[in-house]
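Exercise 7 asks you to align residues with tokens for two separate proteins.
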Amino acid sequence: MAKRRTNDPGPFDLEQTSGNHFEILAKTNGKRYWYARDLMEALGYETWAVFKKTLNKAIGACTTLGISVAENFIQCTREADGKNVEDFQLSRLACCLTAINGDTNKPNVAAAQLYFIALAEVLNGVTLPSDAVDRIVIRQEISELEVTLGKTAAQAGVEFYDRFQNAGYRGMYNMDLAELKLLKGIPDMRRSLLDFMNKDELAGNLFRLTLTEGRIKKDNIRGQAALESVAHQVGQRVRQTIIEETGVRPETLPIGPDIRTVRRGLRSANKGFVDIDDLGKERAVRDRAIRETERDVALTASGIVPDCPECLAGSHYSHFGSRSCTSGSLASGGSIAHCNCDYCS
């Protein structure tokens, strides 16, 4: 695939619409949609296998948001280079979720993220974090893992799950969960800390919980005290790894926007995207605007001003009056509307 010159407008340039621009790539069947393979090229991916992983994460986010996957990621086949290949018809939301989940080392992915984030803000006043999709997907994975870990721990003899849970946090953060919430400034102490973690911190906790469940099963750990000890040990190892790899202590990682707000933002963005890509709605809005303009032109020509209460009430006097008016009508350069002098009436 040929690389574009640095001075060429990219497919997600906010100010230009060249032949390869994202909007030009859209297809229509009553609504706008984009082929996944076209989006793949626009984002700068070279292989379908790699891009498909990004697509799958976007599909996972769509599922987590409770938005129909079938309506946004429509599987299809089409001909390419003389053979049928797998593809998807993607909605604008699907393109957005895929781009937000993409590899930001690719310049076009970074540009696409800015493009969709700006579009969502213009349409709905929604601010989308660039790690929104990753956060939603990982948070859902943790929720599912916490269920299985809870069952595993209960079968192994945990009587006080909150103490077992706290032991893991204490190992990873070197403090109890309540202290950690205070340190990080969680706005509602009743909420899960996980709902405010950014992508990397969520990933660290997913890793911690996965290892904890694995250790319990592998070593056949039994009893409250032994299980708390394992949770603490695993947390310490994850903490050590994070510090060695990043030089950052986990407790100092900043919190992000409430994940509930992120989910609402994406759902709101979806509504805006659906509206602008529904060609039937677009035509109806355009036709209504044309009719209203034609009506306003006709009314004004007849001396009636659209939205003027007196004109709408049926006043028989000209709104503008007459140039020969001696009482100061609008037409004669004065300031009186609906003048009833001899000239205007």
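Second protein for Exercise 7:
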Amino acid sequence: MSAPPAPGLLARPLSDVLAALASQHELAGGGGPAAALTAAAAAALTAKVARGSRASWIEAGGAIAHAESLRMQAQALIERDADAYREASSALMHSERTARSGVARPALATPAPASADRERLAGEALIHAADLSLAIAVVASQIAELAADVSRSCPPSMRPDALTAVALAEAAACAAAQLVEVNRRLPADDPRRVASCDAAATALRARERAL
């Protein structure tokens, strides 16, 4: 009997999540979940600072709601990205094993349908992973912009936390954008590449504005 699947990352203690990110076997691609987790932490810090600003900032309530909405989006992407990279890795490994096993066979004029289907599935899985990395980059850039706004309106005593949120969100946006950039199934002119770079640039400008 096979062991039951491990619970989702968000249902586990933080020490287990970090161990999963460090493992060579548990997560097929740890970069995406790590970026989404970082973005969620940045959104949580942003909400915290906004809550501490209610006495002096009339728009704090809207900032709190926005930060919590972005945090939920980032949290959802933690699990979705982990699942997507697991599927992509499985499809790629299966496709590569099939290709290696076919080296000794007589060459065919056209690939076998099963092989072509596996290649298509591997490609679709990687494209889906790129879509999720882009989604992480976009939500992280939005968190960076919000945190920058909060940093300019919060009490001075809370500004360090707000600036930390901006920096974390920028790092998450840049990391996720890099995952899009290195995705080998995306054409050089794929619009996802441009969109991810734009998200990273937006996060950078937010940090510059906050400082």
